[in-house]
User: Fold this.
Amino acid sequence: MKRTAERAERRKGFTLLELLVVVAIVAALIAIGVPKMRNYMTGVNITSMKTAAERGVAAERGYFSSYNEYVDFTADNTSGTKAKVFDVGGGFKITVPPGVKVEGKKEDCSDGSKGFTISASHKEVSDRYAQYDSCSDVASIQIVNSSSK
Assistant:
């Protein structure tokens, strides 16, 4: 009994085994957390692309209502660290989040009417982009895999 008390008094730190167990637990938590965080950030970046594309669609429609034509534009904020306002023409502006590039292109639809496409990409999401085509039957912004471009 006396030995146990002496040993407890002498012991002031952690054993190697205790430290290894803590390191293993921290490594396991990191191995679980990093992929989840990466997936979360990809979702956030896709939402940024989609929002920027919606703003591009609104700007194109506004421009068309004033000038009876669509406009080609590029709003590139891929190197920015905060949102930036771009003039797409005729005083119509869009706010583009950091890391996002939005492009608007006028086109002729198959039925002979005027139309436009909007595409938005994010520098951190290389495999997908947001797209809107006013000439298609789908009246919403689609997230498209880059391999099918």
In short: The mean pLDDT is 90. The two ends are 77 Å apart (CA to CA). The longest helix spans residues 16-67.
